[in-house]
Amino acid sequence: MSHVARDAARMWYNRGVEQVDENSVRAVVVLSGGQDSAICLALAVRRYGAARVAAITFRYGQRHALETRFARGLARHFGVTRHKVVSLGFYRHITTNALMDPSRRIARRKGSACPTTVVEGRNAFFLLAAAVWAKSLGATEVYTGVSEADYSGYPDCRAAFIRSQQRTIRLALDWPVRIVAPFLHKTKEQEWALADRLGVFELVRDHTLTCYNGIPGAGCGKCPACRLRNAGLKEYNAHRHEKHKV
Ligand code: ZN
Question: Is the whole-model pTM more than 0.70?
Fold first, then answer.
């Protein structure tokens, strides 16, 4: 955020609060324990330092409580002590999908835009809840790892949704929140390249959980999440090895 924008944010904030601590939290990262959110956390910590970053993990009845463990491990690794695991327990009462119901097969149905793993509206809830916490911490940025380029047909990973949700949240909270989505227009290959530049390539490759079948690192190799992740990694590795040979 530019100085001008930050000053404007501060003035806005100061309407109701006497003083803003210079060391206050700047960003809340939505941290799932997967590849995308791990790189988001690395980016935010690089930008602001661990003490000014907070992370939030949501439990919404997904199959793998293991995700929470990976999220905790990542927060610990980066020294982010403000990490909350928050339950969205109502989710299972209003919808279902293959991530939440083990009896449903993880697949992309023929003719369907989305795989059976879509959790309807998930990012809308995540971003709003993260922004509410951000406001209470005095932070104006919310990081999310959503990607339109590789979005698997999930409607709440599109740029149009992110723009709209930012506007909605600003109106709902009267708070100048900015949704930071660094991978919105990036492919998985570009994400791996960024992880490498940030010095977290091995960490992300080995200590995140993206697989829908709950297998860490390279995963099962068969589910849609693994296919996307591993294809991007393969493409990046091809260049990486060439680069290292030179
Ligand atoms: Zn998998």
Answer: yes
**Number of domains the chain is built from:** 1
Q: What is the pLDDT of residue 122?
A: 92
Question: Angle, nearest 10°, between helix axes 66-78 and 35-48?
Answer: 20
Q: What is the C-alpha to C-alpha distance for residues 78 and 76, in angstroms, rounded to an integer?
A: 5
224 found inside a domain: no
Q: Residue 51 is part of which domain span? A: 3-187
Distance 193 CA to ligand 1 centre (A): 21
108 C-alpha to ligand 1 centroid (Å)? 14
For residues 55 and 27, give the distance between their C-alpha atoms in angstroms, rounded to a whole number: 8
Reported as a single tens digit per residue, the pLDDT across 46-66 is: 999 999 999 999 998 876 678
In a domain? residue 106 = yes
Residue 118 confidence class, pLDDT cut points 50, 70, 90: low
Ligand 1 centre to CA of 226 (Å) is: 4
Signed CA dihedral, 229, 201, 129, 158: sign only: negative
Q: Ligand 1: distance of its center to the CA of 230 in Å? A: 10
**Average pLDDT of the chain?**
85
Ion ligand 1: residues, CB within 5 A, are: 211, 213, 219-220, 223, 226
CATH of the domain at 121: 3.40.50.620
Distance from Cα 222 to the centre of ligand 1, integer Å? 5
Output the CA 29–ligand 1 centroid distance in Å.
24
